[in-house]
Design goal:
By secondary structure, the chain is mainly α. It is 67% helix and 3% strand. The longest helix has 29 residues.
Length: 204
């Protein structure tokens, strides 16, 4: 098979550090919210670790933005502005995921460094990185220091609205992670795409 250098080292490092932060945030966040049901660690310990991981995630997000904006590779996240062509690509990819892959049909998308994501991945990653991540960071910062941001929180619906938004985005992220992990198993072997995030090379 042809090997393509698809994941540069900075992207791979960011990916695994980001994944680690997400795992820590999900576990500690569940401990904070459901402390009556879970007893993995003391409440204050969960809060402290959650805050540290949260600020680490913010730093990683800024590194991601700087890298992709600085290299011009940010365009791989931007959906095709030709709506008809983009919808057609999405439908073709959906047919592959829903049926074609089970009967041995070839993947209609061929990844390259400048065209890394298929149409469905583009809209998903665009929503995650440009919508959900900023919203999660904003609500997380507000919840981090309720006293400092009390006036602003009251102005946007109160702490219940901020907390509910933070939880809703967390649920969306958790669902995304399950789908993301499943899709990584759909290569020539179930470890192919996972190995690529360590080596940088994808098999076409």
């Amino acid at each position: 098979m042809k090997r393509i250098y698809l994941h540069p080292l900075p992207v791979r490092m960011w990916h695994w550090l980001n994944a680690a932060c997400f795992a820590v945030l999900i576990v500690t966040g569940a401990q904070i919210r459901y402390r009556g049901l879970m007893n993995l660690m003391p409440f204050q310990t969960a809060v402290d670790i959650h805050n540290i991981a949260g600020f680490a995630l913010i730093g990683l997000f800024l590194v991601w933005a700087a890298y992709y904006a600085g290299t011009g590779k940010i365009r791989i996240y931007l959906p095709d502005l030709n709506i008809k062509r983009y919808v057609t690509s999405m439908w073709t990819q959906a047919q592959y995921y829903g049926y074609g892959i089970f009967v041995g049909a070839p993947n209609p998308h061929h990844a390259s460094p400048d065209h890394k994501f298929n149409a469905m991945q583009q809209i998903t990653y665009f929503s995650v990185m440009f919508g959900m991540m900023p919203l999660q960071i904003a609500t997380g910062v507000l919840l981090w220091d309720l006293d400092r941001f009390a006036a602003f929180i009251d102005g946007i619906g109160g702490i219940k609205a901020v907390s509910a938004t933070h939880l809703l985005v967390t649920i969306c992220f958790s669902a995304f992670l399950f789908v993301h992990v499943y899709l990584t198993t759909l290569g020539p072997s179930w470890l192919t795409h996972i190995k690529a995030m360590f080596t940088g090379y994808e098999e076409e």
